[in-house]
Automatic annotation (TrEMBL):
<dbReference type="InterPro" id="IPR029045">
    <property type="entry name" value="ClpP/crotonase-like_dom_sf"/>
</dbReference>
<dbReference type="Pfam" id="PF00378">
    <property type="entry name" value="ECH_1"/>
</dbReference>
<protein>
    <submittedName>
        <fullName>Enoyl-CoA hydratase/carnithine racemase</fullName>
    </submittedName>
</protein>
<dbReference type="InterPro" id="IPR001753">
    <property type="entry name" value="Enoyl-CoA_hydra/iso"/>
</dbReference>
<dbReference type="InterPro" id="IPR014748">
    <property type="entry name" value="Enoyl-CoA_hydra_C"/>
</dbReference>
<dbReference type="InterPro" id="IPR051683">
    <property type="entry name" value="Enoyl-CoA_Hydratase/Isomerase"/>
</dbReference>
<dbReference type="GO" id="GO:0003824">
    <property type="term" value="F:catalytic activity"/>
</dbReference>
<comment type="similarity">
    <text>Belongs to the enoyl-CoA hydratase/isomerase family.</text>
</comment>
């Protein structure tokens, strides 16, 4: 099978799959380039309310496919950062579903998701020190925001792998599931995500990521959306709310 990214949308959840089984789902230059436009199309799709990123089979992503980077060592980090930033900027909730190795560029992508759920046995590593690569400043700041400066330095300085339980303790992972339970938990979580107010989620994502210049924008969106009135009415009537505001159409 040719290395590729694929996606499907089911029940308002887009699932993006990293497929390169011959090299533990390592990302080629073509795959790095393909991710931002794929995410842009899914962000504009009103039928998508959440996104799951995962790898084919028993591995999330073992990093960059080094064999495809030999001719352009300067280009590779830029492509990875562009893909990472596109994922971080995706305006709807994103979840990394991690099995097996989540290393290098794979850890970069997982860190750019809003939430990370891992199966027991998963291994995480930030490994540029093995190659003499300077880890990008934006990626370093994102890692520090998740795990704190001490753990970020440990991961970056040593390039050693840590298991899912240790990753959970550092904040790199939000939940660890027994083997065979990850898909079920991802389905449960995404059902919750797509049932909630996309307005609340989009605003919270911007605020949590440190953006401070759009408070007035979100106040105006809330005023005109009808989501608050619907949420209150649904609560009083003991029913599920029918939220209608969509980031795909409202910006």
């Amino acid at each position: 099978m040719e290395p590729q990214l694929s996606h499907q949308v089911t029940d308002s959840v887009a699932t993006v799959v990293i497929r390169h089984p011959a090299k533990r789902n390592a990302m080629t230059t073509a795959m790095w380039r393909a991710l931002p436009p794929m995410l842009d199309a899914l962000a504009r799709d009103p039928g998508v309310r959440a996104l799951v990123l995962t790898g084919e089979g028993g591995t999330f992503c073992a990093g960059a496919d080094i064999s495809t980077l030999q001719g352009s060592p300067e280009e590779a980090p830029a492509l990875a950062v562009a893909a990472e930033e596109a994922l971080a900027a995706f305006p709807k909730p994103t979840v990394a579903a991690v099995r097996g190795h989540c290393v290098g560029g794979g850890a970069q992508l997982a860190a750019a998701c809003d939430l990370r759920l891992a199966e027991e046995g998963a291994l995480f590593g930030v490994t540029p020190a093995r190659l003499g690569v300077v880890y990008p400043a934006s990626s370093t700041r994102r890692l520090v925001s998740l795990v704190g400066p001490a753990t970020a330095k440990y991961l970056l300085f040593t390039a050693e792998l840590i298991d899912a339980r240790r990753a959970l303790g550092t904040g790199l992972v939000d939940e660890v599931l027994p083997e065979g339970e990850l898909d079920k938990r991802i389905a449960e979580l995404t059902r919750v995500l797509v049932s909630r107010s996309q307005l609340t989620q989009a605003a919270a994502k911007e605020f949590a990521d440190g953006r401070t210049d759009r408070a007035a924008h979100w106040t105006a969106q809330a005023r005109g959306s009808g989501d608050t009135a619907e949420g209150v009415a649904a609560f009083l009537e003991r029913r599920q709310p029918r939220f209608t505001w969509s980031v795909s159409t409202s910006g």
